[in-house]
Amino acid sequence: MRELGRRSEAASHPYKAGVPARRIIASVPQPIEQAPLALVGKVGRREEVVSACVGARALGIHPGMAATHARALVSDLDFRPAEPAADAALLDRLALLAVRRWSPIAAVTPTDGLWIDLAGCDHLHGGEERFCARLIAFCRRAGFTARVAVADTAGAAHALARFGRDELTRIEPRATAEAIAPLPVAALRLAPSALAAARKFGFERIADLLPVARGPLARRLGLAAITRLDQALGAVAEPITPREDAQVPVVERRLLEPIGTAEAIEQVMHDLLDDLAVVLQARGLGARSLRLTGLRVDGGEQVVAVGTSRPTREVSHLLRLFKLRIERIDPGMGLEHFRLVASHTEPLDAVDLGAVLAGETLVRDPARLVDVIAGRIGVRSVFRIAPVESHVPERAVVHSDPNERPGNWPAWQRPIRLFARPEPLLHVMALLPDQPPRRFEWRGKTYTVVAGDGPERVHGEWWRRDAEVWAVRDYYRVEDEEGGRYWLFRRGDGFEEDTGDLSWWIHGLFG
Fold first, then answer.
1. Omega of the bond leading into 446 within 30 degrees of 0 (cis)
2. Would you tell me which of 13, 146, 351, 449 could form a disulfide with 139, CB atoms 3.0–4.6 Å apart?
3. Which residues contact 134 (CB under 8 A, 6 or more apart)?
4. pLDDT for 269-278, tens place per residue?
5. What letter does residue 115 receive in the DSSP assignment?
6. Distance of alpha carbon 508 from its chain centroid, rounded?
7. Where does residue 282 fall: left (phi above 0), alpha (psi -120 to 50 degrees), or beta otherwise?
8. CA–CA separation, 152 and 23 (whole Å)
9. What is the spatial distance between Cα 510 and Cα 501, in angstroms, rounded to a whole number?
10. What are phi and psi of 466, to 5 degrees?
11. pTM to 2 decimal places
């Protein structure tokens, strides 16, 4: 189970995770801070207790007990009718919330829990432990208790969340068998007939099933029980069908015959983009992020994603971005089902092109070029430098959106190349307090200065931290014998010790 989506053993992870996929399940039982109560529902021809809180269980009430017996045992207990439809609607809302806020793969586990796939996205929430703590706190704020388990498989997480000892259980990778071995056989979600057969043959814990050969065990408990055991251990994949978000535009194509060539995949991409453009246009949206999922014949999945710097629904441009990803798709024995999701959309209205069509202006939109370059070298590698209102040189610039025009730059003389961090200078000879240096050593080489200009005094930003209240830098532009021009500064004004230690640094190069 290594896929963020419908998963299988052969699928590759879209986030390139190097560890096995983790599954997390959070069951949502009774409201907290409530008087002991029990829910009564009709099972067959009689009314039974279908659920009971911790307080009711302490009084001897348990699920499966006849309602008349429960009322006779505790006459003043709060009995309420069970509402399975309302419970299912609440879980569905929670699953939709999980899809929108936590993970794209979340589903309801009937009848009282959720599956949340954290594969590849746990780092977005500060790690598994921090996410689980936040999830429990969220349930408490909503008025519910919760039991959370994290494991390599969905079956193991399901079992530990309901039959584990702790409120929060986190199993290390590849330790699933040891974790579920002490649990009762009922943790495997077996049918009543299989549970009865297990009691008959003396199987009480999952550990009792592990050493038994699969053939004799299947004859005693049935093939369904073997499948559940293998799913919990990870030997058999258990796909999680995620909760669909109706607000997310989705299109899909099921093929009559599997395909595996780049030309055929490109044609399917074009068809899907045509269908998605119609959906986006009807909603007045443009795509910022698209995810294409291809289902292989062997059950594996191939996922590729593209992003744009501006919302768009232009098919030719989006197809060009997807063509850069075709080489990352491993068709295996063939791809038979494709699904295209616009995971991030923004409003996209009509654009007035009257002046452009009349030839009165020339529109230069770098968005297409930015998208293509970002698709090759990464989104973070494409940016513009924009000015920031700060006198401190290393704080005076910031990386901005490459499609946005930066503001006006101040008329200060700054070097062409500004170091990210100033580098120290050694053996500096200078006449205090205001003269530029005459000689300095940098990176093991000695430089003799023939001309200099300065100082340009820059004070510290006192509102940031106390150390900058009295801090001073005196900047100088100097030129050496070989014609190199450097931007140097001295810490301190040369008079007061609080302004700096009089050390010299190089901050940039002019040529």
1. no
2. 146
3. 125
4. 999 999 999 9
5. E
6. 38
7. alpha
8. 6
9. 26
10. -65, -30
11. 0.52
Sign of the CA dihedral 245, 251, 256, 261?
negative
**Rounded Cα–Cα distance for residues 314 and 295 (Å):** 25
- In 314-370, at which residue ranges do the beta strands (DSSP E only) sit? 335-347
In whole angstroms, what is the distance from residue 233 CA to residue 203 CA? 18
pLDDT tens, position by position, 470-496 = 899 999 999 999 999 999 999 998 888
Sign of CA dihedral 366, 371, 374, 379: positive
pLDDT tens digits for range 409-420 = 777 788 888 888
| Residue-wise DSSP of 372-387 | HHHHHH-GGG--EEEE
Distance CA 315, CA 292 (A): 14
Q: How far apart are CA 399 and CA 391, in angstroms?
A: 17
**Two structure tokens written together for 297:** 């014949």
Residue 149 in contact with residue 157, Cβ under 8 Å? yes
DSSP 66-96: BHHHHHHH-TTSEEEE--HHHHHHHHHHHHH
pLDDT digits (tens, 9 = 90+) for 438-475: 999 999 999 999 999 989 999 988 888 888 888 999 99
Name residue 445's beta-bridge partners.
Answer: 442
Residue 449 bridge partners (DSSP): 480
